[in-house]
Design brief:
75% helix; RNA-binding
RNA sequence: CCUUCCCUGUCCGCG
């Protein structure tokens, strides 16, 4: 019905857990909480909004979960890092397919657990190119580009994603020759390939080459602009980064770029400029907050860093290490650690 | 029509 389509669209575009819960309550009020299609979207929404518990409870409410429901909940646990539970659900799943197995495999890949991934890959009833791609990723995440390459050459076929995976890994290391070689030999490219090439050139300090690649990129996405702006910022060209962003009409998707700029200011100890960037941002996510805190911390402005720490909506392990390294830089030893621990306890 | 693999920004470490 019409309302189903509306709810579906709303669930796909939820930006926060609170949004999602609100739509969930509307679904319930409309008497559609038994609808499997919407429940599947609810599971997905709760997963992407970070509430595994609520995803699970929607799944458990389903009288007859279908293959999508099962795969969504397996994926949710895998992405959350709970591979035990993901594997357990996979085992209980009466309709498991390659997607379910790949979801767990991707969980191992995300953790960089290569031997576990390999074992799981070997146990799978079926494999496809996505399974192979996950193996490549597992090696990359574990830090073994050589391992990734070995898997890559052994796999039965390549897709653009396969090539992009390897391309990006070499690119992030600034290995320009290897990156260009992969890029040149790709039969088909996507915008992801072009973006990875921008990053590769930036990492290698070749800012003009990065810009040339950016200019030649067909169908640029927000990530393209963000990568190019970050390239400028990291190479000491914050002004160019800003003016590039002003030419970009996708003004709501530039959080990454502004974070890169503020971080570049932070690296140079220009904390006021960093704060200015932060204040100008339309959206501020956890990474942006961490970037600001890190700027203060690195510059030795511990008091400001503590203020940010107190103010930010969420804290994670990066938040802690940023603050800790600020204390450490002041060389205050045990007293510093004790005070940092006090901050952590307050959460 | 809903599920699995790739690109952009934050700290530390490793190379």
């Amino acid at each position: 019905s019409a309302s189903k389509a509306v709810f579906a669209s709303q669930l796909r575009h939820c930006e926060s857990l609170l949004d999602g819960r609100h739509v969930h309550s509307l679904v319930t009020e409309a008497g559609l909480h038994g609808d499997r299609f919407l429940c599947n979207l609810l599971i997905q929404m709760y997963n992407t909004c970070g509430s595994l518990v609520e995803a699970r409870s929607v799944f458990d409410s389903l009288a007859e979960p279908n293959v999508f429901s099962w795969n969504l909940i397996v994926t949710a646990y895998a992405q959350h890092g709970d591979l035990q539970e993901a594997a357990k659900l996979l085992e209980q799943c009466p309709v498991q397919d390659t997607v379910s197995w790949n979801a767990v495999l991707a969980g191992y890949a995300q953790k960089g657990q290569v031997s576990e991934a390999l074992r799981f890959f070997g146990r799978a009833p079926n494999r496809d190119v996505i399974s192979w791609n996950a193996l490549v990723s597992a090696n990359i995440r574990s830090g073994s580009l050589n391992g990734a390459k070995l898997v890559f050459v052994r796999m039965p076929q390549w897709t653009t994603v396969s090539c992009n995976t390897l391309l990006s890994a070499f690119g992030q290391k600034g290995e320009l020759a290897e990156t260009w070689s992969i890029f040149s030999n790709m039969p088909e490219r996507s915008v992801v390939s072009w973006n990875a090439l921008v990053v590769a050139n930036a990492r290698a300090g070749c800012i003009d080459a990065a810009r040339q690649v950016f200019d030649r990129t067909p169908q640029r996405t927000a990530a393209s602009w963000n990568a190019m702006a970050a390239a400028y910022a990291a190479n000491g060209e914050a002004g160019k980064a800003k003016s590039l962003l002003l030419q970009n009409s996708v003004v709501d998707q530039d959080t990454a770029a502004w974070t890169a700029i503020l971080s570049a200011y932070g690296d140079r100890g220009q904390v006021e400029q960093a704060k200015e960037c932060f204040d100008c941002m339309i959206r501020r996510d956890a990474i942006a907050w961490n970037g600001l805190l890190s700027g203060y911390s690195q510059a030795g402005h511990i008091a400001q860093a503590k203020l940010v720490f107190a103010k930010m909506p969420q804290r994670d392990v990066v938040t802690f290490t940023s603050l800790l390294s600020g204390y450490a830089q002041q060389g205050q030893g045990q007293a510093a650690v004790a005070e940092a621990l006090q901050q952590f306890k307050g959460m």
